[in-house]
Amino acid sequence: MQHRRLGAQGPMVSAVGLGAMSFAGVYGGADDEDSAATIARALELGVTFIDTANIYGSGHSERVVGRAIAGRRADVILATKFGGGGGAGLGRRDKVRPALEESLSRLGTDYVDLYYLHRVDPSTPIEETVGAMAELVSAGLVRYIGLSEAAPETIRRAHAIHPITALQTEYSLFSREPEAAILPTTRELGIGFVAYSPLGRGLLTGTFQRLDDIPADDWRRGVPRWQDENFERNVQLVGHLEEIASRHNITAAQLALAWVLHQGEDIVPIPGTRRRENLEANAAAAEVTLSEDDLREIDAVISPGRVAGARGGMEYLARVNA
């Protein structure tokens, strides 16, 4: 597995990480033993960057990760987040350390490598939140701090208080909004970029061909991009991607991941999966080489203007890039 430095002064991490949200059953039922086996396999493959959050299953994902890495803590670059769920006040100074202490207990460790503010708290100045996070670094409880779904001006204000190591935002062939202002900002400031949902929450894998393929209780049914005509148009785009992938003897998912990796050495995708076979395929995408002609063809097939529907509903989008 290749490695990349996360930000100008951050840790070296595996070029492809592992998002742990699915271990909480967010995309349907999850078996803890299977999840633990997937994490163990990730470590065998050199996938050492594991990303979770305190709200994934109300801490369940953190507990699963903690048990799985017991005895292997030094082999993992462990990231978790607090302040998600859109709750006002979660970024207040008095909320920051208690949230971390609860996460540390669930994770079974005495420090976190990378601690993110999951969503910017609209009721609390970012300077207050980041100042409290910086105190955790001074206390040795956190090594680096990050932000998730923050706007450029917020990133600048935060970075002025304490160096921000990583900015995490949704980024894929289907979600290229960060290219306009967020990526230029992180690159100017020497901040690493962590791409979550690099497979479009599964849409870019080609697994879903019909709306009936999505379970009735799956929350993605409420996402505009996954609804009715939007879904049908996007599936057609994935079909074109599969044609390109077949010429490289890889899957559409691997091609989509390779595309993200080719957008810059400062970008680290963290695809989530609870299945070992998917994990192995995702890890192998780090070895895929795309030419400039390949990249131009992919951009032509799935240009931003051809993707149908937003990545989230109005309420969701109101809480990102704040």
Protein model, in words:
With 322 residues, this protein is of the alpha/beta class. Helices cover 38% and strands 13% of the residues. It has helices at 32-45, 60-68, 93-107, 126-138, 152-161, 182-189, 228-247, 252-261, 276-284, 292-301, 314-317; strands at 3-5, 12-14, 18-19, 49-51, 77-82, 112-117, 142-148, 166-170, 192-196, 267-269. An eight-stranded parallel beta sheet has the order 3-4-5-6-7-8-9-10. Strands 1-2 form a two-stranded antiparallel sheet. Helix 2 links the parallel strand 4 (49-51) and strand 5 (77-82). Helix 1 (32-45) packs across helix 2 (60-68). The model has no long low-confidence stretch (mean pLDDT 94).
> Percent of residues in beta strands?
5-15%
Strand order of the largest sheet: 3-4-5-6-7-8-9-10
Order of helices and strands: EEEHEHEHEHEHEHEHHEHHH
Sequence stretches where pLDDT stays below 50 over 5 or more residues: none
- Discrete helix count: 11
User: Mind telling me the C-alpha Rg?
Assistant: 19 Å
Give the structural class: alpha/beta
Instruction: Report the average pLDDT across residues.
Output: 94
Summarize the structure.
The chain is 38% helix and 13% strand.
Task: Throw out a few tags for this protein.
322 residues, alpha/beta, eight-stranded parallel sheet, 11 helices
SSE arrangement:
Blueprint: E1 3-5, E2 12-14, E3 18-19, H1 32-45, E4 49-51, H2 60-68, E5 77-82, H3 93-107, E6 112-117, H4 126-138, E7 142-148, H5 152-161, E8 166-170, H6 182-189, E9 192-196, H7 228-247, H8 252-261, E10 267-269, H9 276-284, H10 292-301, H11 314-317
Parallel strand pairs: 3-4, 4-5, 5-6, 6-7, 7-8, 8-9, 9-10
Antiparallel strand pairs: 1-2
